[in-house]
Design a protein that fits this description.
Layout lengths: L20 E7 L3 H10 L7 E7 L9 H6 L6 E3 L4 E2 L5 E3 L4 E6 L2 E6 L9 H13 L3 E5 L8 H9 L3 E5 L8 H9 L4 E3 L1 H13 L11 H4 L1 H15 L8 H14 L5 H10 L1 H19 L2 H7 L1
Helix pairs in contact: 1-6, 3-4, 8-10, 8-11, 9-11, 10-11
Length: 301
C-alpha cells in the first residue's frame, strides 16, 4: 500500500462516474478504529465519493492506507492537486497539507507552519459546501477539540447532511460532542451503523434531481398542514418564504426519516413533536443563510 496510485485507474467502469454525493469524513484522535469500522461496513458500489480528512502528524507516517486496504475493497488514493473526485473511491488528505475542492477537483495547499491553529476538517467541509451544495455530506468521527463544527454548519446551510459518531462509541468525544451540542447532526450513530443510513439516504426518491421540488408542491393540503404545525410551534408563518428553499428542506427531512410522501410526513410530524422542532431549526438555518447572502440583498434592493 506504500505505492498507492497518484491518479485513479480507469480500468473499471465502476470508477468512472460522477458521485451522487460527496462524503467528507473528519477524524482526529481515536479515529483509526472509527474509520476502520465505518469502511468495513461500506459496500463497494454506493455511488458515493469519500474524502477522508484527518489531523495528521507532519513527522510520522500515517497508517491509514494499510488499515483501509485490509478493511475495504473501495479503491484508496492519496489526494493529489487537481485530482478529479469519482464515485466509489476514497481519497486521503496528505500530511502538511490542507485540502479543498473546486468543480469536483481536489486542491492541496501547504499548511501554515507558524504554530497557529489549523483546522483542516473545517476548511474542507466549508469548501465542499461551497462547491457541491446539497450534494455535500459531512461525517464527524472521534477526535478532540471542535474542528468540524463550523464546517458542519456550512454544509447544513446549503442543504447538505451531517452525520456524527455517538459520544459513547467515540474514543475521544470532543469533536462529536461539539457538533451534537449545536443541533446540527441529522444522525448520531456508531460508525458501524453509518453505512446503512448513508445508503438509505442516497437511494431515497428525492435524491434523484428529477423528483426534487415537484411532489411536495403538488400536495397543497399537506404543505398547508406542515406550515400550520410550524406556526403552532414557532408562531412564524413560513408560507411566504422562498418556496424552493422550504420544499428542499422538507424533502431533506423526509430523506433523513425514510419517508417518501407528504401525507406520511404530515402524520409523522403530528406524532413526533420533536420532528417539528427539528424541521423548524432546519428551516431557520436556511433562512439565516439567505440573510447573510450579499447577492440576495442586492437583488432585493
Amino acid at each position: 500500500m506504500d505505492n498507492l496510485p497518484d491518479v485513479p485507474s480507469k480500468s473499471l467502469s465502476i470508477q468512472s462516474s460522477t458521485p451522487m454525493y460527496y462524503v467528507a469524513v473528519g477524524a482526529s484522535a481515536g479515529g483509526l478504529e472509527a474509520i476502520e469500522a465505518f469502511f468495513k461496513h461500506m459496500p463497494l458500489d454506493t455511488g458515493l465519493a469519500f474524502i477522508l480528512v484527518q489531523h495528521l502528524s507532519p513527522d510520522y507516517k500515517s497508517l491509514m492506507p494499510e488499515l483501509l486496504e485490509n478493511r475495504t475493497e473501495i479503491p484508496v488514493f492519496r489526494a493529489e492537486n487537481n485530482m478529479q473526485v469519482l464515485a466509489n473511491h476514497i481519497y486521503l488528505i496528505t500530511p502538511r497539507k490542507n485540502l479543498t475542492i473546486f468543480h469536483g477537483r481536489l486542491l492541496l495547499q501547504d499548511q501554515e507552519r507558524s504554530g497557529g491553529l489549523n483546522l483542516p476538517i473545517d476548511i474542507f467541509f466549508k469548501s465542499l459546501s461551497e462547491d457541491q451544495g446539497e450534494k455535500a455530506i459531512g461525517i464527524i468521527l472521534s477526535g478532540t477539540g471542535s474542528d468540524g463544527t463550523r464546517g458542519a454548519r456550512a454544509i447544513k446551510e446549503v442543504g447538505g447532511m451531517v452525520m456524527v459518531q455517538s459520544e459513547e462509541s467515540a474514543k475521544f468525544d470532543g469533536m462529536p460532542r461539539s457538533v451534537i451540542a449545536t443541533g446540527l447532526a441529522d444522525f448520531i450513530l456508531t460508525p458501524e451503523d453509518m453505512a446503512a443510513q448513508l445508503q438509505a439516504y442516497s437511494k431515497h426518491p428525492y435524491a434523484n434531481p428529477l423528483k426534487r421540488n415537484v411532489l411536495p408542491i403538488t400536495n397543497e393540503e399537506g404543505m398547508t398542514r406542515i406550515f400550520a404545525l410550524l406556526r403552532e410551534r414557532s408562531r412564524i408563518d413560513f408560507t411566504f418564504y422562498k418556496p424552493s428553499t422550504i420544499v428542499r428542506r422538507i424533502e431533506r427531512r423526509m430523506m433523513v426519516n425514510h419517508i417518501q410522501d407528504i401525507p406520511s410526513y404530515v402524520r409523522f410530524l403530528s406524532e413526533h413533536f420533536n420532528e417539528v422542532e427539528v424541521l423548524y431549526q432546519d428551516l431557520l438555518i436556511g433562512v439565516t443563510s439567505f440573510m447573510r447572502d450579499p447577492l440576495a440583498f442586492e437583488v432585493l434592493s
